[in-house]
């Protein structure tokens, strides 16, 4: 939860910004959050803390890893339940997508991601957790026009939080010495 976020100086987290985001005004205004940083820096933790804050404010929240979302849609397409599956990613007030653009997308996957981005633009908020900044996303999408469209919809009206730090939060929190 928001109350348990560690603000170690080397992480360079803006406490006031995160506390401000926990009020959920970004959801009311249909803005997005980009959480960027290295493996283990705490992106998922902060995203989930913001998700809990949203749920406490009675917003519908869904968390998913990008690969799980894409697998779900692939199975739904094969089982003729694609529209219903797609709705679960279009409808929540807050959609949290973890491991964003970690792996290259296929043409079909990139079209599905664009459909979600299109449906959520100015209608819902999305938190994307990624090791790459927006220019790195383009490299993961085969069609550059589709890549530009995805980046434009998610990066526009977004709050960018870059998490720094010398050590992984897993290493810092480890009980084994």
Q: Tell me about the biggest sheet? A: 5 strands, parallel
Strand runs, count: 5
Tell me the radius of gyration: 16 Å
- Unreliable stretches (pLDDT < 50, length at least 5) are none
Strand content: 15-25%
Helix-strand sequence = HHEHEHHEHEHHEH
The largest beta-sheet arranges its strands as 2-3-4-1-5
Provide a descriptive summary of the structure in words.
The structure is a single chain. 47% of the residues lie in helices and 16% in strands. A five-stranded parallel β-sheet has the order 2-3-4-1-5, with helices on both faces. α4 runs antiparallel to α5 and α6 runs parallel beside α8. The two termini are 26 Å apart. The model has no long low-confidence stretch (mean pLDDT 93).
What characteristics describe this protein?
single chain, 177 residues, alpha/beta, 5 strands
What's the SSE blueprint?
Elements: H1 15-21, H2 25-28, E1 32-37, H3 43-56, E2 61-65, H4 66-78, H5 82-90, E3 94-98, H6 107-120, E4 125-130, H7 134-138, H8 144-155, E5 158-163, H9 169-173
Parallel strand pairs: 1-4, 1-5, 2-3, 3-4
